[in-house]
Each structure stands twice: as C-alpha cells, then as structure tokens.
Amino acid sequence: MSTLPKVAWIGLGIMGSPMSENLVKAGYDVTGHTLERDKLDRLAAAGGTAAASVAEAVRDADVIVTMVPASPQVEAVAYGPDGILENARRGALLIDMSSITPQISVDLAAAAKEKGIRVLDAPVSGGEAGAIEAVLSIMVGGDQADFDEAKPLFEALGKTIVRCGPHGSGQTVKAANQLIVAVNIQACAEAVVFLEKSGVDLAAALDVLGGGLAGSTVLARKKDNFLNRDFQPGFRIDLHHKDMGIVTDAARTVGAVLPVGAVVAQLVAGLRAQGDGGLDHSALLRAVERLSGAQV
Fold this sequence. Notes:
Blueprint: E1 7-10, H1 16-25, E2 30-33, H2 37-45, E3 49-50, H3 54-58, E4 63-66, H4 71-78, H5 84-87, E5 93-96, H6 102-114, E6 118-121, E7 124-125, H7 127-133, E8 136-141, H8 144-155, E9 158-165, H9 169-197, H10 202-210, H11 217-228, H12 237-254, H13 259-276, H14 284-291
Parallel strand pairs: 1-2, 1-4, 2-3, 4-5, 5-6, 8-9
Antiparallel strand pairs: 7-8
C-alpha cells in the first residue's frame, strides 16, 4: 500500500492533464474530475480514477488540487453544496494551482479555515511543455508547515518551487510573471517583424540573440512558434488576457504604475478581439504583423 497522500485533481485541461498524470507516474493515487469525458478517459488510461463530480472526487482525499481557468471557476468548484469546502474532510489540504486574483485566494483560505481545510495558492509557470516535462516553476502562498507537507507533491510537478509568503502571495508573483512574459513575447514579436522586413536570416538572428543578453526562456521556448508561425495553444491568448486583467487590477490596488504592461494588456485584448483568443500567446506576432501592414 502506498504511504503517499490520496489526491483529488479538479480540472484536466492543457495543464491539468499532464500534471495529474505526472502525479500518477510518481506513485500517487489520483482521482480526477473535469467536465470533458475524454479528459476523464485520458486520466483513467494513465492509471488514475475518474469521478463523476467534485464531491465524489474530494470525499476521501488527503490533498485536493484545483487547476481551472480563472477565479469564477475556482469559486464554482470550491463553494456550494456540491463544492470542495462542503465535501472535503477536515484536515485536508487544498492546493489551488489556477491563476486567479490574489484576493480570491485570500478569501478562499479564510472560508476553508472555517471548515478545517488548509489552503495553499500555488500557480505555475512553464506552459504546456513545462507541465509535460514536470519542470514547472511553482510559486506558493500559505503557511510554511503546509508548504513543507506539499513539497514532495510539488517536486513531482516542477523544478523551481518557492514559498513566496502568506495566502495570496503565490498569485501575486504569478501576476508579475505573466506581466514579464507578455512584455517579453511582445518584444520578441516586434523584433521578428523588424528582422524579417530588414531581410535578415531570421533563424540565424534568433539563434545569436538567444545566446546574448536578449536571450530568455520566452525566446527559447517560442522561437519555433515565431519561425513556423505555429500558434497551436500551449497557453492561450484568452488566458493571458485574463491574467493581464489580474495584474493591472492588482497593481491599481497597491498603487503600482505599469505603463508598458498597460500597453501590452491592450495589445493582448486587441488580438483577442480580432478572433485570435484561442491561439498561443506567441500569436502576439500576428498583431505586430497586422500593424506593420501584413495580411494575416
């Protein structure tokens, strides 16, 4: 019999499916729930167990992980008669790995405490590739003891795992991460258009830029997207639009001025309005091409 905690996993999307499967590979007993039947079948095929509802999934779990798109979905699975807080056992640890508003994380932790349930907010960075390869960066908010308890589980999912402070801190750091990523992608996209219009060998240029101070994880991971105009979603524009809303709102609350971030947030919103919300966020290149006169 395994001595590892029993895990309930809620949300089996682009990130959630490979992450939950990595827990199964690491020896965890994982019961999952999501709205798509094919995702439940995929988990079962990987060795997990499919549950018909949130309540069924969490009832016997020691650890509950949520990985859903945004704040409304977190609240939908957490609250209400069929939600996590009403059906999880006292003493369970709820780890929300979604990217949501920091205040929602703080409120969830307070509500869960009344039910005897502990909470960590633990959003991730690294995209689909990082989820598949189990090399995610995981930024965590919550009590140190709960973080220490969850550390072995996190180590099955990622490589850089850091407690950033009390409840909500993980979400605040994730918002900063999404700000940096969006601005970086936008800069790369502008450089790609500039290089191509100048007649430079784009592949060679990106190789040499990647080896210098302009190099970044974004450039390394998205270089082929730019070169091949391959915008199959690893992280959708729709989700980055949501995240830019989180960071601009949170920055306003604390009095931080983000002039470049505000411009990029509008560029992301514009791309989404043009019908590209389902594409990978590297599709910011398409917006720069349109502004530069290309028909895309």
